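User: Study the fold:
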Amino acid sequence: MRIALAATLSLTLPLALAACSQESEPPVESEVAPVGTADDANLREAERSLADPTAQGPTRQLTAIPQRFRGVWDAVDGNCAPASDLRIEIGERSLGFYEARGAVTDIVADGPDAVVVTLAMEGEGERWTVRRRFALAEDGRLIPTAPAGEEDFEPTPLKRCET
């Protein structure tokens, strides 16, 4: 009996002490799956599965913005300069705007040639969350749109800038 009690205490005492500790551990950041060309292949497979509602297909969830969306974009009449108001720099997991930056928190394939990106934005001392859909048009332009409820958002076609 004494041995069983001692064994129980030796296992539960450290747990109880840890629970009472005043020190809190820093939050653990979630791990992100490795990114690369697999995401572009995943997007193409998701597009095929969306075309056929009976197909199982891969998940529409992506780990990074597909390569074909990445790069520097500006309004069709913009000059692609870093100071251009409508210029967007799209990376694997971030977007850079004229006065703000966004870290990607969610990426979902949305049919052929489109992704929906949720961003944790930061700029000019403020933080907010925004969701945008980016679609590649047949003429090579990128069309950003906002979900319903953002009546003040005006989609502006973007051209790819030379880098």
The beta strands are 71-75, 88-90, 94-96, 101-109, 114-123, 126-136, 142-145, 158-160. The longest strand covers residues 126-136. Helices lie at 2-20, 37-51. Confidence is low (pLDDT under 50) at residues 1-35, 49-59.
